[in-house]
Design brief:
Strand order of the largest sheet: 3-6-7-2-1-9-8
Helix content: 25-40%
Shape: globular
Radius of gyration: 15 Å
Distance between the termini: 32 Å
Largest sheet: 7 strands, mixed
Number of strands: 9
Order of helices and strands: EHEHEEEEEHEEHH
Amino acid sequence: MRFIITGSVAALLHGVPLEPGDLDVTPALDRENLERLAAALTELEATPSVGAGKREGGTWVETGGQVPWPPDPGEPESFDTLLASRLGAIDVVPEVSGTYEALLPRSVEIGGIAIASIDDLLATMTQAKHVERAAALRALRR
């Protein structure tokens, strides 16, 4: 399966001391890869979490876990939700952090897994909760 780790876990892997709330994954969106992702999510017993929702015009709208499940590999947007799994929370983010294809050239590899670059992480840190993380990532970049 082809994917890039984004969000707080990527920041942690770059060296920012924090405790991630979930694992953000940006998958390649071709059907074959999404079929593999769907199988992996099934194996992890992933289901939409209470905080699950959907994006409407760039805004996240919580649906209380009421999203169509399982996802359809023919419709990449059907994967875009927060999931609860037996290993913890997983947030599949097909495009919100950038697409797989856009992130891949700048990504770094850690242990054979693609991690979003510091610059790409900084580009998505726009909320108040990101202030300290962004400062730590800028310090690491220097």
